[in-house]
Amino acid sequence: MKPNLILHVIAKFIIPLILLFALYVQFHGDFGPGGGFQAGVIFSAAIILYSLVFGLENAEKIIPHHWLRILASLGVVIYAGVGIESLFLGGNYLDYTFLGSNQIAGQHLGILLVELGVGITVASAMLILFFAFAGRGRE
Amino acid sequence: MGNHISLLLVIVPLIAAPLVAVLPRGRLPWAASFFVSVVCAVFAGIQLWSVLQGGVISYELGGWAPPWGIEYRIDAVNAFVALIVAVIAALTLPYALHSVEREIPEEKIPTFYSALLLCLTGLLGITQTGDIFNVFVFLEISSLSSYALISLGKSRQAFTSSYQYLIMGTIGATFYLIGVGLLYSQTGTLNMQDMANILPSVLHLNTVETGFTFIMVGIALKLALFPLHLWLPNAYTYAPSVVTVFLAATATKVAVYVMLRILFTVFPQTFTIATPADELFIVAGMAGVIIASVYAIYQKNIKRLLAYSSVAQIGYMVLGIGFATATGLMATLIHLFNHALMKGALFMAIGAIIYRIDSCRLDQIHGLGRAMPWTFGAIVLGGLSLIGVPGTAGFISKWYLVTAALEQSAWLPVAVILIGSLLAVVYMGKLIEALYFKPVTDNRKVVTEAPLMLLMPTWCLVLANIYFGLDTDLTVGVAEQAAAILGGMKP
To answer: Membrane spanning segments where (chain A) (predicted)?
Structure first.
């Protein structure tokens, strides 16, 4: 790929901001607009931008493919695991109230963890899709 | 534990699916999936038993009370369907070990089992939930994973048939969702019980009728009701053998269940009878039985032959729904169960043939029955059940279906059911003739009997076909209760 100075500089400047914004959307999701799905998409957008500017090989060095697979699975396990945890604590499935010392703390913690799981799975699934299409015809 | 079993039935395969996907290659993914399917079958059995003992189970997800939260509501109807799905899964997985190693590339095997478990999650979820929108979510889980499963077939046509199913299935799911949206706009609830309470006061509105129509067309696409069946023959033919067994025995059955729920639990029964829906079901059912059976006779591919036969069998089930009587619903539910047994057995036997000769063309299997006597025996007995010979499960379902038709003095459907059975004699006869009576083609290598791991699940289902043809306590007993719940009446 021909190096393009402007693209490189702008991308280097903007990618950390996108990642930061993704984390904001992720963890502020229970107070304002946002949540795991949106955050996951924004997070993966940063890495997709990186691979568009710096090449697919470099992007795959940051996140190897088998990691993505594990992460995509991990997110689902976190989500379902939170539900199982509340079962063990004596509540119904996904009844967050039982996770904390009082109802508000429990509901807060529960939705935070569940959205974290959603965010991880969405981000890695988006990247798996991107790499699957972008990597076609390489070999 | 108590009520948690109804939830674990869905959660155990859901949580196992991502774990199986990251397991190392080898037999570990299979072993884990097999374990999960057995656990589900046991849970489904306990669930049916406790429903029959103690009535309806209601489970509030997240502790939110219905109608605001999602409710799992299990009565005899869905406990029965869930048991069918879980037991078929538990029988399909031992069968899968060798068949999958032969048909699926090694690096895809963990993902294959993961998708199979997700499909199981979706199908069980549809049966468990009492929330009309939640049905859509699980419908998508099961559909998306089955598109992926079908596309893993060996031939290139697997991609196109999977894509065809994706388009048709998505249209079906979208129609269902549009219908649910319209009903929600008028009732303000998504809980089935709550909606059933509110609907009678808004039934006269056009929006409700439109919503009803959208939902019915959407589900009819998913259950491959003639003439919306076009995706089914290709999908069943080109899918891997295991996937064909599993989907043929479960997926359409679950769609029939959703149709029953909407028609008889969510909407008042009088609504179905007042609209042309019931007449349409009878017409579509009759056309499906005759036309799909005739199509089956002319097929050159044995999997496609059985796929068309499946479309015909769905016709029988829809006939029972169309009668809208207690006996009709019983016939539908009994046939739901029995058809899962017979098609499961037949597709497993066909899968054993494919395992040995790697082909499912009718002219490649000449004389194979003598080389594979046990597989051939399974096909003969499964075929007899499909035809409806007394002493097999197929006879019981046809008996109740004919009784339901006679109760209404509907002579045309009676004739159609009998002609359909005769047509089944013709296409199963064609299969058996090719397998046993045609001379062996010269240029074929010597074929031996299929391995035991393929034969045992097949024969489990074959023997179940005979058992449930003789002892109908479970099927008829449960179907009677279920029909009473759906129709709110005694037969």
So the answer is: 5-25, 37-56, 68-89, 109-134
Distance from CA of A95 to the nearest CA of B (A): 4
Write down the ipTM of this complex.
0.88
Domain positions in chain A: 5-134
Please answer yes or no on whether B4 and A87 come within 8 Å at the CB atom.
Answer: yes
A73/B62 Cβ within 8 A: no
Name the residue in chain A with its Cα closest to that of B62.
A95
Nearest chain A residue to B4 by CA distance is A92
- As a whole number of angstroms, the distance between CA A87 and CA B445 comes to 57
Spatial separation of the C-alpha atoms in residues B324 and B264, rounded to whole Å: 9
Q: What is chain B's alpha carbon radius of gyration, rounded to the nearest angstrom?
A: 21
Q: Which residues of A touch B (CB under 8 A)?
A: 69-70, 72-74, 76-77, 80-81, 83-84, 87, 91-97
3-state secondary structure A70-84: HHHHHHHHHHHHHHH
Note the pTM of the prediction, 2 decimals: 0.92
Give me the sign of the Cα torsion angle A84, A86, A89, A92: negative
> Is the CB of B63 less than 8 angstroms away from the CB of A72?
no
Q: Does B25 touch chain A (CB under 8 A)?
A: no
Contact present, B203 and B272 (Cβ < 8 Å): no
Distance CA B453, CA B66 (A): 45
Task: Look at B18 and A76 and tell me if their CB atoms are within 8 Å.
Answer: yes
Q: Where are the domains of chain B?
A: 276-491
> CA nearest A80 in B: which residue?
B15
* Nearest-by-CA chain B residue for A76: B18
A99 → chain B, closest CA residue:
B62
Contact state of A77 with B61 under an 8 Å Cβ cutoff: no
CA distances from B296 to B96, B425, B434 (A): 26, 11, 15
Tell me the pLDDT of chain B (491 aa) as tens digits: 567 888 888 999 999 999 998 888 888 999 999 999 999 999 999 998 888 887 788 888 877 887 888 888 888 888 989 999 999 999 999 998 888 888 888 888 899 999 999 999 999 999 999 899 999 999 999 999 999 999 988 888 889 999 999 999 999 999 999 999 999 999 988 988 888 888 888 888 889 999 999 999 999 999 888 888 888 998 999 999 999 999 999 998 999 999 989 988 888 888 877 888 888 899 999 999 999 999 999 998 999 999 999 999 999 999 988 888 888 888 999 999 999 999 999 999 999 888 888 888 888 888 888 888 888 899 999 999 999 888 888 899 899 999 989 988 888 989 999 999 999 999 999 888 888 888 877 666 677 788 888 889 999 999 998 898 888 888 888 888 888 888 764 33
Kindly give the residue spans of alpha helices, DSSP state H, lying in B358-472: 368-371, 373-387, 393-407, 411-432, 452-470
Contact pairs from chain A to chain B, CB under 8 Å: 45
